[in-house]
Amino acid sequence: MTSLPPPPAKKLGLVIDLDTCVGCQACVTACKGWNDQGHGAPLSDQDARGADPSGTFLNRVHSYEVTPPDAAARIVHFPRSCLHCDNAPCVTVCPTGASYKRAADGIVLVNEDACIGCGLCAWACPYGARELDAAAGVMKKCTLCVDRIDNATLAEQDRVPACVRTCPTGARHFGDLADPESAVSRLVAERGGYELMPEQGTRPTNRYLPPRPRDRIDDEAPLAPLLDIRPAGLAGWLDRVLGRL
Amino acid sequence: MHPAPSVILFTVLSGAGFGLLGLLGLGPALGAAPSGGLAALLLWGLGYALAGAGLIASGFHLGRPERALRAFSQWRSSWLSREAWATVAALLASAPVALASILGRPLPVAAGLVSGLICLATVLVTAMIYAQLKTVPRWHHWTVPALFAGFALTGGAILAGFGPFAALPALALGALMILAFRIGDGRFAAAGSTLATATGLGPAAGGGLRSFAPPHTGSNYLMREMIHVVGRRHARRLRRIAVLAGAVLPALILAALPAGILATALAAILHLAGALAQRWLFFAEAEHVVGLYYGAR
């Protein structure tokens, strides 16, 4: 059923810290690795070792150059994946019912056995969260690793999405964003976490934490005084004598 | 958006087909002389052939076409699913009207009125698949269903042999195309999505924000499907071709030449060529907001 459920009591999602992310792509690799062999069709690659490689990924990390007029320039790494929107346009456009939002926890999923690969859900998503797999002919998207977070056979610390588990800088956080007391909600409140493209009216669950303001370096050339050394003593005498010759 | 031949052919052919079926059904209610026998067989046959060819072309757009029947299930929420139903309803409702007309024993005017209106509604439902998408601001506008209806009525009127009367929808379509091109050019900016809103880095950047490195060195599905810049180089020329061939020239031909097979065929060929040019632009010029993440549109 592609009608959206009423707002779920539990909203599982990610909080991504743009201040801490170093753009190492470990989350991309962990995501591809886990989702290549678990839930649904594998994430295929085409021409993987050829001249024009291409493949399906559920998480991609962009890098943006930020050059504010009154602060130091910086690079911000920006992981982009499904935001598990409350008002998910990808769900309501689906003609087959393959695309759905779980009423229990708000995770947006694709039933790949019912997907006809029309691609309309990918068109409806402003965030580029969905990619049609060229080998399987069905739509792939982030599942928040439903086969990890509910998996009783995994150790407790592994019951989080693969990207969160692997992030070496702790820039990715997983939890219930409907509970104001959860760690992720408190993090959002503390750091001013925000939604992406609010003007699209999708009401995403995931939040991004802005990069913290950084000091401006007042002295842009700290070595400059060293250029103006006046030789003294023996070196000074040599300098004067040689200068006179 | 990627101008895939399958969707261009689908929307152009099925639009003209349902326009023809619709106007053949509505013809008696509009006061057109009912045709019978061979002429009716050819006209209704052409309508069904165009609509059918369009549907087959649309199948090539699917990753798993063997599951296409599932698309009938979500009519409550999905315009694509509603389109599946509308298509079947239009083809079924037109069948008895067509048969009766071919056999020379036309059904009451009301039957053609119903089947004709269902055919035209089908075209509007097809247009809503595009017009519903907020992510493509150029499409998210009333001009899209208006254009689809304009093409269906013009193509249908030309093919149905309405002669000089078909010049009226053609001229209206030409004006609509020019209006839609004009309005469409400002839609992306009006939607308000920028790299700053897409990343939320606007406040931190204070205006200095640009894509530094993409996530991947090669292409991917998103870029192939939503970021298409090849066709835009010839946009100006193609717009002129679309308006001239799709609307102005057919109107002139139908108004100037004596009504008959020659004028109809000439106008129809020109109109379909113009419709293909317009539909190519419809996709190639449509910019998806996801392109913002890549610093491209």
What is the fold's blueprint, element by element?
The complex is a heterodimer of chains A (245) and B (297).
Chain A: E1 12-17, H1 26-35, E2 45-46, E3 54-55, E4 59-66, E5 74-81, H2 89-92, E6 99-101, E7 108-110, H3 120-124, E8 131-132, E9 139-140, H4 146-149, H5 162-166, E10 172-176, H6 183-191, E11 207-209, H7 233-244
Parallel strand pairs in A: 1-11
Antiparallel strand pairs in A: 1-10, 2-3, 4-5, 6-7, 8-9
Chain B: H1 5-30, H2 37-59, H3 79-102, H4 109-131, H5 143-159, H6 167-191, H7 195-199, H8 202-205, E1 209-213, H9 221-226, H10 235-256, H11 261-284
Structural notes for this entry:
The complex is a heterodimer of chains A (245) and B (297). By secondary structure, chain A is α+β, with helices and mostly antiparallel strands. Chain A has one domain: Alpha-Beta Plaits, CATH 3.30.70.20. Chain A has 7 helices and 11 strands. A 3-stranded mixed β-sheet of chain A has the order 10-1-11. The radius of gyration of chain A is 25 Å and the shape is elongated. The N and C termini of chain B lie close together (9 Å). Chain B has helices at residues 5-30, 37-59, 79-102, 109-131, 143-159, 167-191, 195-199, 202-205, 221-226, 235-256, 261-284, and one strand spanning 209-213. Chain B has one domain (5-202, 217-294): Formate dehydrogenase/DMSO reductase domain (Formate dehydrogenase/DMSO reductase fold), CATH 1.20.1630.10. Chain B is built from 11 helices and 1 strand; from the N terminus they run H-H-H-H-H-H-H-H-E-H-H-H.
